[in-house]
Amino acid sequence: MSLPLPRAVRKGSRLAIVAPSGPFDEQAFAAGVSWLRQRYEIKHSPEIFSRFGYLAGSDEQRLRDLQEAITDPDVDAILCARGGYGATRLLPQLELQKIAGANKLIVGFSDITALHALWARAGVRSIHAPMVAALGRASDAICERWIETIENPAQFRTWHLDAFNCASGDGAAGTLIGGNLAVLGALNGTPYAPPLDGSILFIEDVGERPYRVDRMLTTLTQSGWFDRISGLIIGAFTEGDPGPDGISTDEVMRRHFDGANFPVLTGFPAGHIDENIPLPFGSTARIEGEKLLLNAP
Fold first, then answer.
1. pLDDT band at 168 (very low <50, low <70, confident <90, very high)
2. Is residue 116 annotated as a catalytic residue, yes or no?
3. 204 in catalytic set
4. Does residue 167 share a domain with residue 132?
């Protein structure tokens, strides 16, 4: 069920940084680049610092930088500077055959979910993980996990989480996909949604009030997403306090998934949080009771 292993990344590899979404804090970016250069050769376009409103430059410039990173034979993996918004605008111009032929990891999360979905459609692995503008301030533990994941995405990993429903004891297995719920919802009904059949889907989000989470989950339910997956992993849902009605995001999740016929685990420490654990998408994931196992032998 795992996708083929990607082009190898090791100490000394050349990594290209791109900004397919929003602009970023240049000091935070510089701190992340400084940390990366202790282990890797780093390249990026001087235009990466461009700003075009809420975008990190024009669509043409952001697309050009990403396409060059994909096709450059000397680049081993692609890192994203920051999320925000804008990656979905580039999807129609990105060719699956070129992504598949390059077979390079792309690393990021949040708005980069749009690219994770495209990489999955191309049959290429990707890493849901902190981006360059966050690495300079990340903890030593996260930085160590980041290196371990990008250099060995097929390593066996296991986490003990919280079982969310009765079906969790039944177990499930599938290719790990997913990312930010709002971006996944934006991909619904487009040719760029991730391949769902038999997958283990991971979701997280930030700044979405419970009723908005309910609306997104309702849309995906009515579109048949949850009829196609074999399991669900719920990550961090932050900055989404209840409104005057008092309904929490946890209650919304229970209304949707208490009776699901697939296992649901919650509490995975990934998303818009300081300790954002890297997740290797494209790995084989297995749910066994309250355990999530990746790349299990």
1. low
2. no
3. yes
4. no
